[in-house]
Design a protein that fits this description.
mainly beta, Porin, 16-stranded antiparallel β-barrel
């Protein structure tokens, strides 16, 4: 997902607007990505308890397919108003993604100061995703990168106020969501999370986080924290809120055309009276520009589960995954790629038979590994 905020764009309109002595300039940009691939997977969970290979055409691969509008207006004195509306689409079938939302990827408006940073309001990425996006070897690729295991399923949150700013080599950010608007994790996902903003229940479905990054020369590092407080729904209705916490640190170092990355993520998810999961996630990898057109990526993830009051949530062995990407750019806007991954003690993206992260790669009963490979094409506009 290296592309989450950096996709190439072309201008739709750039109109200078003058009123009296004011000289504010406005622009709106249309941008997007279409990414499709042909995929083959082994040990896929089939009807009943069977196992089968799967052949598929997917609408996302290195990137999630989307289109969007990005706007900015110069208000003078280094202050600008900004907005983003971004819609996820199925590159294979043209359907709206993110549960059918029109602008499910992003929808926010705010103010940006050249000196003091930016504050925005709406549906936005979490601080943890922004912190780790440039420290994940495969750039949070939509296909096979275990993004949900790394940062949680709610990496976009509704009803969010977010601040970000860059001051020399240091970048900082923080956010607060009054109601995350999404499912938050483990067990029966349909019974966790929601829109929040319920009178008298301020904590219900809230979320918050912060980040700080440093970049100077070939070295970069980041630390980040994220928490969501999902509502727990029982047979009698609302049963209280859980607490899902994650903290992470990562670093990278560039040597010539290669960027080496490593990171660690701590996690704990609790419901009233019990610990659902307590896990650690480690990763390391390298991104290598072999030529001006060809880049190679290799990354490895390793997950350990610790204490839990629900043993069924612990897989039989520690999940791990090895992933490789070869990406060939035909032009500045179009590339062809090969991506492949092998997971042990889990499905691809570190899905397991007991913990489904909504990636859809749960292994069949009795299978403790999966292999996947995809050939794709991506076009940015």
């Amino acid at each position: 997902m290296r592309d989450w905020g950096k996709a190439p764009v072309v201008a739709l309109a750039a109109i200078g607007v003058f009123a009296g002595a004011a000289h504010a300039q406005s622009s709106v940009t249309l941008y997007g990505t279409l990414d499709t691939n042909l995929e083959f997977d082994t040990n896929f969970k089939s009807a009943g308890s069977g196992s089968a290979n799967r052949y598929a055409l997917n609408g996302e691969g290195l990137s999630g397919s989307r289109w969007g509008l990005r706007g900015v207006e110069d208000l003078g004195n280094g202050l600008s108003s900004v907005f983003v509306l971004e819609s996820g689409i199925g590159g294979d079938d043209g359907t709206m993604q993110q549960g059918g939302r029109l602008f499910g990827r992003q929808a926010f408006v705010g103010l940006q100061s050249a000196t003091y940073g930016k504050i925005t309001f709406g549906r936005q990425y979490t601080s943890m995703l922004e912190a780790l996006a440039n420290f994940s070897p495969a750039a949070m690729s939509s296909l096979y990168e275990p993004v949900i295991a790394q940062i949680g399923p709610v990496y976009r949150e509704d009803n969010t106020v977010k601040y970000s700013g860059t001051f020399g080599p240091v970048s900082v950010g923080a956010h607060w969501s009054f109601g995350t608007g999404g499912s938050s994790g483990t067990l029966d996902l349909s019974r966790l999370g929601g829109s929040g903003e319920v009178p008298g229940q301020f904590r219900r479905d809230t979320g918050f986080g912060a980040r700080a990054s440093y970049a100077a020369g070939p070295f970069s590092a980041t630390v980040t924290y994220d928490q969501v407080n999902p509502s727990i729904i029982g047979n009698g209705g609302f049963a209280g809120t859980g607490t899902f916490k994650k903290a992470a640190a990562a670093a990278s170092y560039a040597i010539g055309p290669a960027i080496f990355m490593t990171g660690y993520r701590w996690g704990m998810s609790t419901a009233p009276g019990q610990t659902l999961t307590r896990d650690n996630l480690y990763w390391a990898g390298v991104y290598y520009e072999m030529t001006s057109a060809l880049s190679l990526t290799l990354d490895y993830y390793y997950q350990t589960f610790r204490s839990s009051t629900l043993p069924a949530l612990r897989p039989a062995g520690n999940p791990r995954q090895l992933m490789f990407i070869a990406d060939y750019r035909l032009s500045k806007r179009t590339d062809l790629y090969l991506t492949t991954a092998y997971a042990k003690n889990a499905g691809l993206c570190l899905d397991t038979a007991s913990i489904a992260f909504n990636n859809g790669y749960q292994p069949a009963a009795g299978k403790d590994s999966m292999f996947g490979v995809a050939l794709g094409i991506r076009h940015n506009f």
